[in-house]
Amino acid sequence: MVKTSRRKICVITGTRAEYGLLYWLMREIQTAPDLELQIVVTGMHLSPEFGLTWKQIVDDGFAINHKVEMLLSSDTSKGITKSMGVALIGFADVFEDLNPDIIVLLGDRYEIFSAASAAMIARIPIAHIHGGESTEGVIDEAMRHSITKMAHLHFTATEVYRERVIQLGEQPDNVYNVGAPGIENIKKLELFDRKSFEQAIDFKLGKHNLLITYHPVTFETFTAEEQFRSLLEVLDELEETHLIFTKPNADPDGRIIIQLIDEFVAKKPGERVAFISLGQMRYLSAMKFVNGVVGNSSSGIIEAPSFHVGTINIGDRQTGRLKCESIIDCEPESESIRKAIKTLFSDSFQESLPKLRNPYGDGGSTEKMIKILKEKNITRILKKKFYNIG
């Protein structure tokens, strides 16, 4: 197939959260006269159970070039492994059809790992966002570093992570600290005011409010229910506190957590609400108005500090990530969570929050990434040479 004069950039997305982080980059690629945007959606975007969020991409004015169907009817290890195989077959066909110049991948999920594997075999350069990070409690840790070794351009969120990618043997000239894309959303989106936010989620905020996102810890087996029940036990004790839940991704044992959320919310619907997907606008707006973020999501580590909001980070899922002083780590058991919530609501902790600076940057990542995607010479980039430190 003959290459066009415009460089074809293929962006792959499999989840609502990941798409939110890629939005501004996709928009800039779409409007750049010397770039051609290709979009491939897969994973949770195509699942009715998780809200068919591919429709949001279309509503935002993007054209989807291909959908790669995966088997998401099971959240067992066996089911997810089969999903990866189905995805690998799908991406092989897609890449042959689209023939992109560069593939853009973000993060560490298994559908992204499948896309990277297919791109590597197809000899297509990969630009990887959010490499070099460490999340020791989840399978994503190994996925992320594996994608790094298959990738050719690296856009990291901090200098610490840039150095870690280089430590993995990547050439320094191909590793760029651009900051976290999620910070750009906070800077660019015109978020809801309080009244508009309440209307958007059809829920009244209370005197105190918490935003809760909890995912299974994928390196542990049969712990999701026990650990999440410990969290719910403590949340049930809170007075004058309204709770906004976002449901977990399609990870092993994710459906157990979803069932527990639904049962918990149903007991006090005026004080509790749950969403399959809030979307970036409503999710980031929620951070503006809550007293804290609770759970084990990376958003509590990366985005929440920019709102000067405290985060209770439960368990090992985010162990190893660079953390601001606004993060309160605790064990996934009732007494530890109870103590963390007490700290979160304390006057001394709340008074410290406005002074803190987010280590993941101040925005501007899209401009940096676009410049590299446009100008980087990729003629010989596929032949990687291992970089030895020292």
CATH superfamily of the largest domain: Glycogen Phosphorylase B
For the termini, the CA-CA separation is 43 Å
CATH topology-level fold name of the largest domain:
Rossmann fold
Radius of gyration: 21 Å
> Number of DSSP strands?
13
Helical fraction equals: 40-55%
Structure in words:
By secondary structure, the protein is α/β, with parallel strands linked by helices. It has two domains: 7-179 and 364-375, Rossmann fold, CATH 3.40.50; 190-355, Glycogen Phosphorylase B (Rossmann fold, 3-Layer(aba) Sandwich), CATH 3.40.50.2000. Helix content is 42%, strand content 16%. It contains 15 helices and 13 strands. It has helices at residues 16-31, 54-59, 77-98, 110-121, 140-150, 159-167, 181-188, 194-201, 224-235, 254-267, 279-289, 298-302, 334-345, 347-352, 365-375, and strands spanning 7-13, 35-42, 66-68, 102-106, 126-129, 153-156, 175-177, 208-213, 241-246, 272-275, 292-295, 310-314, 327-330. A seven-stranded parallel β-sheet has the order 3-2-1-4-5-6-7, with helices on both faces. Helix 10 (254-267) links the parallel strand 9 and strand 10 (272-275). Helix 1 (16-31) crosses helix 7 (181-188), helix 3 (77-98) packs across helix 4 (110-121) and helix 9 runs parallel beside helix 10. The protein is globular. 47% of the residues are buried. The model has no long low-confidence stretch (mean pLDDT 92).
